[in-house]
Amino acid sequence: MNAAPEGHKRARFYQLSLEERLAVIAEATGLSREELAALSGEAGLTADQADHMIENVVGYHALPLGVAQNFVVNGREVLVPMAIEEPSVVAGASFMAKLARAGGGFTAHTTPPEMIGQMQILDLDDAPLARLKLLEQKEKLLAEVAELDPMLKKLGGGPRDLEVRLIADSPVGTFLAAHLIYDVRDAMGANAVNTAVEYLAPRVEAITGGRVLLRILSNLADRRLARARCTVPLAVLAFDDFSAEEVRDGIIEAWAFAVADPYRAATHNKGIMNGVDAVVLVTGNDWRAVEAGAHAYAARSGRYTSLSTWGADREGNLVGTLEMPMAVGMVGGATRVHPTARAALKLMGVKNAQELAEIIVSVGLAQNLAALRALATEGIQRGHMSLHARQVAIAAGAEGEQVERLAEQLVAEKTVRIDRAEAILQEWKSKS
Ligand code: MEV
User: Fold this and answer.
1) What is d(CA 395, CA 267) in angstroms, rounded to the nearest whole number?
2) Nearest to 178 by CA among 152, 153, 159, 157
3) How many domains are contained in the chain?
4) 179/262 same-domain check
5) Beta bridge mates, 215
6) Domain for residue 49, yes or no?
7) Is the pLDDT of residue 105 over 70?
8) Cβ within 8 Å of residue 143, ≥6 positions away
9) Are residues 235 and 328 in the same domain?
10) What is the pLDDT of residue 238?
11) 362, 308 in Cβ contact below 8 A?
12) Most buried among 146, 215, 265, 344, using CB within 10 Å?
């Protein structure tokens, strides 16, 4: 059972203590004591497990783990775990999910989980001829690859196609790039794909008479896309002195800046990745792969641009879409080993990698909306500062209730600096 906390609790989740938040999650999701401990940091990855994951281990590095509220993805309530050091991200996602919820939440889907494995074929006498020879053997090669991983075959995955591209005018002349299209089901897929292209390389050399140098997956996973859309009712956009139309049109104008200008697009897409990476990371997935795929996809037209779109429908509501590669898995690697990653997947109640990708792309869209709404109205600093002030207060040595009080004073004074925070703490100390 995976339901979000009830309405009144959901709205006040951020005001609860850490223990109370965990209790709300336990009640809503039925997570076990061990799983809750893995989320809270009480348990989680052990040094021994870490030692088996990478080399030269001396410990592990912790990040704050928050749970975004209000998300409805494809009609299902979902609590979204996010691991991130930046203030405002979890709050922004939760608030925008609430606005989107008023319009039915997020509708998301994915294309099949097809990854691309590349082989670079050099030293060819006649590259176009070698290309055809390889394509003539396609069915035979795919049939061989299909037997490499019986488990994947059983699950309905396996090779789907072999494409051969001619790369002319490279610094080392003309060569071929063969692409093995491989359905990796619920895996991220790097291992399966790399195994398959390494297996194919000698066969490809025999067929083409060339030399296969690189055999590696491409992170431009443009066959494995995740798409999300949302409609935010016009009425919920107004706040403070800003009319709903002003907010909507400001968001669309802000988006247009990212469409037209790579300098702005990089920051715009970074805002999307604030949400995407936080969920990719907490589920033990490879966020560098997702980052690389996102930015390469944003540049696919030859000019780097926005990954999202924003516009208005006939009724004047704000409509947003996001499409990006999403190479995330639920089996293998850290996703399987890391107790927090397992608990995070359980918290979301996802059954397969495609459902996970659908949630992640929805969070990316929510995060983009949060940034554009703030930027197009009051600016980013107001919201950012109060959260940043808490970090400064903690860094200055504030404890317990002092943290909130000190943060409020720093914001009120418009001086969110550690030296001032230390001075205030000193004043309080001398008075007590
Ligand atoms: C900050 O982490 C992200 C933003 O810069 C994104 C944006 O500008 O759209 C606020």
Assistant:
1) 28
2) 159
3) 3
4) no
5) 119
6) no
7) yes
8) none
9) yes
10) 97
11) no
12) 344
262 and 386 co-located in one domain: no
Choice from 90, 307, 375 to test ligand 1 binding pocket (greatest atom count within 8 A of CB): 375
User: Does the Cβ of 386 fall within 6 Å of ligand 1?
Assistant: no
Instruction: Please give the number of the atom of ligand 1 that sits closest to the Cα of 380.
Output: 10
DSSP assignment of 365-410 equals HHHHHHHHHHHTTT-SHHHHHHHHHHHHHHHHT--THHHHHHHHHH
Could you tell me if 151 and 238 lie in one domain? no
Considering the domain architecture, whether residues 241 and 283 belong to the same structural domain is answered as yes
> Stretch 400-412: mean pLDDT, rounded?
90
Q: Which two tokens stand for residue 155?
A: 């699950």
**CA of 271, closest atom in ligand 1:** 6
Pair (345, 414) in one structural domain: no
Least confident of 7-21, 106-120, 149-163: 7-21
Give the CATH number for residue 248.
Answer: 3.90.770.10
Give 275 Cα–ligand 1 centroid separation in angstroms: 11
For residue 131, what is the domain's CATH number? 3.30.70.420
Q: What's the one-letter identity of residue 381? A: Q
Q: Where are the alpha helices (DSSP H) in 137-189?
A: 138-146, 150-154
Are 97 and 121 part of one and the same domain? no
Structural domain harbouring 142 = 114-218
Distance CA 386, CA 315 (A): 36
In a domain, 171, yes or no: yes
Determine whether 42 is an active site residue.
no
Which strands, in side-by-side order, build the sheet including 211-218?
A: 158-170, 173-183, 114-122, 211-218
